[in-house]
Design goal:
0% strand
């Protein structure tokens, strides 16, 4: 069976919406990622499997964000809930982004602020984003979690040493 046929098969099984849906979506996402990674356009692949190019993009993003970084499915289908990842901001993008006029590709990024205030706001925003988006948790390494655990002590030391 070629990859496109296999994608169709897993998408059809997943559309039944049963206990195996998440596992079949992950398999389809991996196969989609492989097809696109080898050079097939998302639009062409979408036509071949009977899905929109947007769905293909989201599936590609799911595998790229989580599946590939976690090393794929294990015997127990060991990836997070597919639906949770598929509908996450990390996969779909921020709905508020891209509405600025005249920005390249419809997206506009504010320049980074390297002032003390800018760095504090960047740190606060980054921690909030991680806390609010469980899709990140699955791809964080043990080293990332160690750093997160150390942050309260670093902040306490900063407050103590600055006299605040």
């Amino acid at each position: 069976m070629d990859r496109v046929e296999e994608i169709r098969k897993h998408e059809a099984i997943a559309d039944r919406n049963d206990a195996t849906t998440s596992e079949h979506r992950w398999i389809a996402a991996q196969l989609i990622w492989e097809e696109v990674n080898e050079g097939k356009s998302r639009r062409q692949l979408g036509q071949e499997i009977g899905k929109s190019h947007t769905h293909v993009r989201y599936m590609f993003n799911c595998w790229d964000l989580v599946g590939r970084k976690l090393g794929g499915l294990d015997a127990d289908g060991g990836l997070p809930s597919f639906n949770e990842i598929y509908n996450s901001v990390e996969v779909r993008g921020d709905p508020g982004e891209g509405s600025g006029k005249g920005s390249a590709g419809g997206r506009h990024r504010e320049p980074e602020d390297h002032s003390a205030h800018g760095l504090v706001m960047t740190a606060s925003g980054a921690i909030s984003e991680i806390a609010d988006n469980p899709a990140f948790w699955a791809v964080m390494s043990d080293e990332d979690w160690i750093i997160i655990r150390e942050l309260p002590a670093v902040i306490r030391a900063l407050l103590r040493d600055s006299g605040r």
